[in-house]
Amino acid sequence: MVYRPLILMPACLLWCQLLFAQFRNAVQLTFEQQGHTLNSTQCFSANDSLVVFDTRNEDTKIASTNTIGILNIYTKEIKILYTIPNNTEYGPGVGAATFSPREDRVMFIQGILNADKSNPYSITRRTGVSIALKHPDNVRFMDARNIYAPYTPGALRGGTHAHSWNYDGKWISFTYNDAVMEKLGRDRRTVGVMFPKRVRVPKDSAGENNSGEMYSVVVAKVTTSPTPGSDEIDKAFDECWIGTDGYEKENGSRQKKAIAFQGNVLDSNGVTKTEVFVVDLPEKFDLKNNKTPLEGTSQSAPRAPANVTQRRITYTERGIEGPRHWLRSTPDGRLIAFLAKDSKGVINAFGVSPNGGNVSQLTFEPSDIQGGINFNPDGNYLVYFAQNTIRVTNIITGESYRIIGNLEPYGAVSWSHNGSMLVYNQYVTGTDGKKWLQIFSYKIK
After folding, report:
1. How far is Cα 124 from Cα 178, in angstroms, rounded to an integer?
2. Is pLDDT of 35 > 50?
3. CB atoms within 10 A of CB 283
């Protein structure tokens, strides 16, 4: 990689607050002997008073998890937002809950409701549902699903995951796996978006299908057999929206909606590595002038609309490396952050413009970053786990500061919308002798 200095607006006020933060203590907010898993992003309500969680105690246990909860970070009061009755180890299951940035609405993964031992929760058998806090009994399917031909335009044929709202709360990105292609042995994870437009799907006796509040399209272009040394990918995943209002192109124009994602390519020796890609999205998708049906056929996967543009923006020697994490963008859209090994072989954060070009090293930790990363609201600071502590780095200067130590890292640390609070998960041993994921907060300002 080529490392270049990063020039952004000064942000000395928050840095001073972080220096004095050593005199504060983290606050444990939950105590029940159950899991309290926070999503890696968008866990705060729009007014920063609530966080949403699911009751997993392990990341992989969505199938056996049946509850979404809401926590008031000031009163520590917990309210159960949603519970699936008669849930089993096979599903349906719920998890990975996010708050809309504009309204009191939560979205989360839910397995297909007919899940059982013979047909359990899986990556192709899940969907996104949402609930408004004012109407907790009104559960809405967001993405429509139809796994039987003839397939329905705007509906998908598999499972969505890792739902992320764009900054106006109107569009939602997700990763996707296709059940039809899975049966043919050709399923490849990809990235899609949904936007407001109701899609109606015929009911089926098996309970596999559902109508949806939003219209879904795949936006990343994947192939089952990438050409070595090319920009073709066989997997697209762990994406983020770029900027609160997109990003500025090299010609000075504004790309209003765009997504960065990780894509697996083959190097010239046929070895897989992960690079950063960008898809530029139109304000209105071309849903008609496409060579093949966007919803897919019995022999082909769903396709991206013709007016979606995909570009590879990093050409690194070794690619993205480190713990699983989602890409992150600064609010102004000038920078996309990811993890990779530095020249010393240590996993640190790096950044690149959505237009491509030089890669900048953002953090300079002496030992590996241990989980996901998140920018503060002005985009000048990154928070993450490293050395079993929570650390914040000023990406202007590269200075790093420890604010909480002696942790067992889990997931990612998240900023509140106003930048005054951090929340994170930590295992705590209960009176039953078991370790339970609890939620902690840490006040910055």
Report:
1. 6
2. yes
3. 7
Instruction: Determine the pLDDT at residue 12.
Output: 53
What pLDDT shows up at residue 8?
42
Could you identify the residue written with the tokens 């609530």? 50
SS3 content of the chain, % helix, strand, coil (to 5): 5, 40, 55
Taking the C-alpha atoms of residue 330 and residue 380, their distance in angstroms, rounded to an integer, is 8
Distance CA 384, CA 390 (A): 6
The arithmetic mean of pLDDT across residues 341-370, rounded, is 98
Q: Which band of pLDDT confidence, cut at 50, 70 and 90, is reported for residue 7?
A: very low
CA distance 14 to 378: 10
Encoded tokens for 261: 């994602």
Q: Is the pLDDT of residue 404 over 80?
A: yes
- Please state whether the predicted TM-score (pTM) of the whole model is above 0.70: yes
Are the C-beta atoms of 3 and 363 separated by less than 8 Å?
A: no
pLDDT above 90: residue 337:
yes
At residue 10, does pLDDT exceed 50?
Answer: no
Mean pLDDT, residues 65-81 taken together: 98
Coil, helix or strand at residue 266? strand
pLDDT at 17: 55
> CA-CA distance, 203 to 213, in Å (whole number)?
15
Q: Name the percent of the chain lying above pLDDT 90.
A: 92
Q: Report whether 326 contacts 237 (CB < 8 A).
A: no
Smallest CA-to-CA distance from 380 within 369, 359, 398, 394 is with 394
Q: How far apart are CA 306 and CA 43, in angstroms?
A: 34
| DSSP secondary structure of 16-43 | HHHHHGGGS--EE---SSS--BPPSS--
Return all residues near 432 (Cβ < 8 A) that are at least 6 apart: 33
Q: How would you label 387-403 residue by residue, b for 16+ Cβ within 10 Å and e otherwise?
A: bebbbbbbbbeeebbeb
pLDDT of residue 9: 40
> Which residues are 190's β-sheet partners?
176
Q: Which two tokens stand for residue 299?
A: 């022999």
Of 14, 13, 74, nearest to 47 by C-alpha is: 74
Can you tell me the distance from the alpha carbon of 48 to that of 36, in angstroms, rounded to the nearest whole number? 18
Task: Determine the residue type at 108.
Answer: F
First to last CA, the chain: 36
In degrees and rounded to multiples of 5, residue 197 shows phi and psi of -175, 110
